[in-house]
Design a protein that fits this description.
The protein is built from 11 helices and 13 strands. Helix 1 (11-22) packs across helix 7 (215-227). It is 37% helix and 16% strand. This is NAD(P)-dependent oxidoreductase.
Length: 337
Amino acid sequence: MKILLTGGVGFIGLKVAAKLHSQGHSLVALDSLLEQVHQDIEVEKAQFPGEIVVGDVSDASAWELLEPAGAIIHLAAETGTAQSMYETDRYRRVNVEGTRLAAEYAVKWNASLISLSSRAVYGEGFKNRGTTESDPHRPLSVYGETKSEGERVVADVTGGKIAATIIRPQNVIGPGQALHNPYTGVLAAFLARLREGKNLSVYGDGTATRDFIHVEDVADFIVWVLDHAPAISESPRIFNLGSGERITLDQLAQFSIDAVPGGSASVIEHVDVKRAGDIDHALADMSFAYSLGAPHAQWSARESIADFIQKSWETPGAKSEAWDTALEELTERGLAE
């Protein structure tokens, strides 16, 4: 089958593409190839096993360049929670209008649609349980709002017309994630500080919790969804996607220190910082997906973190000062205190 992946040359896209290519599918990527996202554009382009169309997912003229596909996997997005609070127009354009075009073309081509949303639609999670797909949307950031709006767009455009699935991933980690974008991913910040022999700065008291899932587990889940499209009458079907394992930010930092090749003398330092959009708890309740036979995560949090640290150790990335500068910028804008 011919499959279009928006954001196909990205962190998740390349992993999904590799698995689909091994199954014999014909692949096309629509990707803007922005430098903020891509560390080495030529290397990443060479890793995509198919045709690449360079274009903005929110630009209708880019979609006009594409030939019909049997399925669309919509991964392209702007993902910086704090950055979204002042880059509002860009985030709404890409995350809402880009999703609208993906949904409209899926209907036009009579293609199945898989659209990646985010756990950010839930806002603050729960300390004693995971969020379920039926929990209300209470986003705390523009990013979360745009993902929530994108879900409504998918439902409005595709309802009763095609098979559509919405996936809400938790924190996706693994080798290949951006190491030079200081607006996404605490692990990249930890990696930069560890490589410089610095201590790890954990915002708050370290008891906040997250659900980290390895990118390979995410790719396996997306491939499973493609093979188990819902009936049109049940679309869009919504799935949480996480490991179901809760760890604290202190554990995240310690697992990172423990994974340093050759060992590390770095220790954890707590910093009294609260950024706009930050939450205290996040955990996916995976009961619904598992009840339908979805694959369980194969990587534990510790294993996922070690895999990222060790395989990314020699990969060029931003210096730790980039995250310090980003925090200063947020503070100046009144988005951190």
